[in-house]
Amino acid sequence: MTKPLNVGTIGYGFMGKAHSNAYATVNHFFDLQYRPVLKAVCARNAEKAQAFAATWGYESVETDWRKLIERKDIDLIDICTPNNTHAEIAIAAAKAGKMILCEKPLSMTGPEGLHMVEAVEKAKVPNMVWYNYRRVPAVTLAKQLIDEGRLGRIFHYRAKFLQDWTINPELPQGGAALWRLDAAAAGSGVTGDLLAHCIDTALWLNGNLDSISATTETFVKERKHNLTGKVEKVGIDDAAIFMGRFHNGSLASFESTRYARGHKALYTFEINGEHASIFWDLHDLHRLQYFDHRDQGIVRGWRSIHVSDSDHPYMGNWWVPGLQIGYEHSFVHQVADFLKGLETGKPAMPDFRDAYRTQLVLDAILESAKSEKWVKVVHG
Ligand SMILES: NC(=O)c1ccc[n+]([C@@H]2O[C@H](COP(=O)([O-])OP(=O)(O)OC[C@H]3O[C@@H](n4cnc5c(N)ncnc54)[C@H](O)[C@@H]3O)[C@@H](O)[C@H]2O)c1
After folding, report:
1. How much is the pTM?
2. Mean pLDDT throughout 147-173?
3. CATH code for residues 135-376
């Protein structure tokens, strides 16, 4: 018999869907003691929230997240709302003794993130941040190969996250669909939205970043604001590029932009080591490219590993070898690992403290871009 775990999800947008799908699917494929129950969804628009609840099978609806947090029948609060709401909701949920899953980036700034870390640690509530790319099987396999020492000493870590959806200067900022362009709601632009993912993966695969030199640009300086109706200054970064030094001596090169015409969500990373290199591409997410210099010369070359065999990470839980899975499965894996963590007492990562480390790197990027100087990353 599985134990029910009552979930209260806040926000029914992109991530509200991705998470609801994960809760609904996880026990079909993973053998777990806990079973998420879609108890309540919360959003300000009651009609839309009702429609979402009906589609996804939520038992009830709330229109004020404070009411949801007060409810005795909710075990876990899932924060799927814009970045400027994460801290207030998470701190209140921790005080109410709820488990918390929070979308990334953890917070608007490092200091705000630290308050959240302190709140969950004081309340001793299980917590996790949705840096889901760690759980794409090919990325998890990259971690396994690195931890086995196959790459040897690491020289380079190179990551990019490229999009092209904000090039039109007529696109307004702010409001429901465009909060990402409004600094008051998002905190930053591509730095917190896209680079945050690249940094979480990098810290996990390659350890701490020690220092950073960054530059950012806002290509469209003014946009009409959907909430005020006025043309206002744009406060987010449209593009961010940084170089840096990892603690293990390797060099970092990172780029993210929403102005790379032709690219929709091109997240790639490449790691070059003394013996071997690894390359991964979100557009081809079930493959890991691997080059091993120790192979016999006449057959040496890049291998394109189709990460779909039953001994690949997570894949034994899915279909037969050779059949691949996709983006949504990374969220299913994250829920599975979180529930396993509750079972075993070994929490799934990244928890708030781990995600706070990424926040400190984001702060260092923005500080360096502003000061035009190298900045040392504070280690949390
Ligand atoms: N892990 C990932 O890959 C990933 C991908 C996309 C977004 N995100 C993160 O998820 C979060 C949400 O992004 P999204 O793309 O789902 O946004 P979205 O705009 O699609 O959805 C946001 C939802 O929050 C609701 N909302 C806003 N303020 C609210 C409030 N005060 N009370 C209740 N509901 C409120 C909106 O009505 C909407 O349902 C952001 O922090 C974002 O950075 C993460």
Report:
1. 0.98
2. 98
3. 3.30.360.10
